[in-house]
Amino acid sequence: MSEVTKVPGTVSVGPAPVTRIARRHARPGHEAQYEALVREMFGRLRAFRGFMGADMIPPEQAGGAYQVVVNFASEADLQAWDESAQRAEMHRRIREVAEDEPEYRRLSGLEAWFAGTVVPASMHPPRARMAVVTWLGIFPVVSFYLWLVSLWPGFVDLPFLPRTAVFTALITATMTWLVMPRLTKLMRGWLNPKPTP
Question: Distance between CA 145 and CA 169 in Å, rounded?
Answer without folding.
Answer: 11
